Amino acid sequence: MFLLGKIVEKLLSNLGQCDHRRMTSADGKGAKGYGTRGPNPKPERGNRSQPMLNRIISRSRRSLPQPSITSLSKHAVLVMLIGCLPVADLQGAELPSPGGPFEFAVRLYADQELEEARGRFEHLAHLGFSEAQRNLAVMLVKGEGGDRNLPSAYAWLAVAAQQGDAQAKALQPKALALIHDEDERASALKLAEQWQQSYTLDAVMHALEPEYSTAQEKPVTWESLDGIKVVDRVQPVYPPRLANRGIEGSAHLQFLLPDHGHPRDLRLISSAHEDFTAATAAVLPKWKFALESPPPAHLYEQRINYTIGSSHKFEQATQDRIEALASKAESGDVAAMYQLGWALEALPVEDSTLTKAQSLRWLHAAALGGLRDAAYDLNTRVRQGSGCVRDVETATRWKDLAAGLRQPDALRSLANERLRAGNQYEAIYYIKGAAASSGRPTDTARLAWMLATIDLDAERQGQRALDLMDSIKSTYLDQAAWHEIRAAALAETEQWKAAIQEQRRGIRLLQQSDIPTADAKSRLDEYQAQRALRLPLDSTPF
Question: What is the rounded CA–CA span in Å between residue 212 and residue 17?
Fold first, then answer.
């Protein structure tokens, strides 16, 4: 009895020293060479106030049951281990806000969907995420969602500890103490050594380096777009005040391409001047592209150069800038590495100066340096075989890595996948996570449209949608869409007269670009009949 009392006393002492925080993502964790691996410590795409090439692409309170203790003498060490972990003590703790796959796995655990949560943690653990490795270890110790596996639990804690996870480091010796069989202990130590070489985030990223190739590289021209054909192109207007001062430059935008072939949902990648951005955003919706088949679910890109006569000042300045960036990148500047990774797409660079394979090498270096956008861009390039051998499996791993880092485009891609699989709840979670993680006007607009129109009563928030659209009035480049989304939000809050006015403004802008207006006019009819929109999650105003 005295011994049991001592065990209880020691147990309570240990638990009192534990950090009973909820599971959180890795925000604020240092990344080698550059800031964080969470939200990027750099400007987002879409900030029009920055010069070209200095801009780089971005960004229910529930509780868990306490562990069941049927025999203190049998489970004392186990409780001492799991008591320090957030996965075992979420009583009264608020769960993470919408974010990425790790945060969703926490919610699955909270809902007692243990097998599914364990599978999600395991997938993220193999991608190198220390918080998932730590929480997977807890589930392995407790035998939650599957068999108990102490050697694997210890090994995952060892990997997480190696990556700087303080809780994993504190728990590692306690996990080893649970293993009494010498052969099993030796196995755990060997497994830990192997996994520490393979499953850190850096090790995974190194292993996924593309197989570079310069075969069949095509010159990058200002009018090139893969897989589609321009059938109607309106000449952009050179901004007068820049022309008068002899200022040259370019603007590079991304966009969605609906069935009608006109660019919509414009997003800025880079621009030499805000006037070039405005001129490009004004002309692109008037362009029309021929689509041989339904457009794939990804963004297209277009760069427009603004040069005066036969002047080559802009091209020369570009080459000088490339040389300066290369010097910085070679000295370890991760931002310069990333800019070089995008130089071919953002600037008129000759292939003899920078090849697709070389730009891809710099992109990989930027990902190793901690930039989550570089991870997603690697997914795109490897999937297309741009500068490398095309490899869909490796591309998917890069996309999953980017999603684990809460990269907005990766989260939107995950949302589309979950929606196709019929999982609307998870899709909504990632749409919200993308908007919260990026701050991009396009992600904010997409969230506002969902909040104003979704046919789930629990998810609609008309006033919040209205506030979101007002917050991006000066930064969202698709003004027709801005008016339409705001009209839907006004209708949801039963401000019918204002909704009708906004919708009519949107229709006028569509007509100015010769974009079909049938859908927009049908929405106007709904507002005139004082009916708010009720649409499926995958609807868009485009």
Answer: 51
Residue 246 burial (CB count, 10 A): 9
Nearest to 303 by CA among 224, 228, 358, 241: 224
Q: What are the backbone dihedrals phi and psi of residue 36, each rounded to the nearest 5 degrees, phi first?
A: -125, 165
Tokens 């996990």 sit at which residue? 175
Q: Look at the pTM and tell me if it is higher than 0.85.
A: no
- The b/e string for 498-529 (b: 16+ C-beta within 10 A; e otherwise) is bbbebbbbbbebbeebebebebbeebbebbee
Instruction: Tell the residue number behind the tokens 């969470």, with chain if given.
Output: 38
Match 């880092």 to its residue by tokens. 405
Secondary structure string (H, E, C) spanning 341-392:
HHHHHHCCCCCCCCCHHHHHHHHHHHHHCCCHHHHHHHHHHHHHCCCECCCH
Helices 130-142 & 166-177, crossing angle to 10 degrees? 30
pLDDT tens, residue order, the chain (542 aa): 333 233 223 322 332 233 222 232 333 222 222 223 333 333 333 332 333 223 322 322 222 222 222 222 223 333 334 444 444 444 445 677 788 999 999 999 999 999 999 999 999 999 999 999 999 999 999 999 999 999 999 999 999 999 999 999 999 999 999 999 999 999 999 999 999 999 999 999 999 999 998 776 655 443 445 556 777 888 899 999 999 998 888 898 989 888 888 999 999 988 889 999 999 999 999 998 887 665 555 678 888 888 887 666 766 777 787 888 889 999 999 999 998 888 776 655 554 567 888 889 999 999 999 999 999 999 999 998 888 999 999 999 999 999 999 999 999 999 999 999 999 999 999 999 999 988 889 999 999 999 999 999 999 999 999 999 999 999 999 999 999 999 999 999 999 999 999 999 999 999 999 999 999 999 999 999 999 999 999 899 99
Q: Is the Cβ–Cβ distance between 285 and 263 less than 8 Å? A: yes
Judge whether 288 and 262 are in contact, CB under 8 Å.
yes
137 CB-side CA count, 13 A: 36
Cα distances from 215 to residues 368, 388, 389, 390, 424, in angstroms, run: 25, 8, 9, 12, 42
Q: Is the dihedral of CA 395, 398, 400, 402 positive or negative?
A: negative
Contacts of 19 (CB under 8 A, 6+ apart): 84, 167
Contacts of 296 (CB under 8 A, 6+ apart): 227
Is the distance from CB of 147 to CB of 181 less than 8 angstroms?
Answer: no
Instruction: Give the whole-angstrom CA distance, residue 351 versus residue 219.
Output: 6
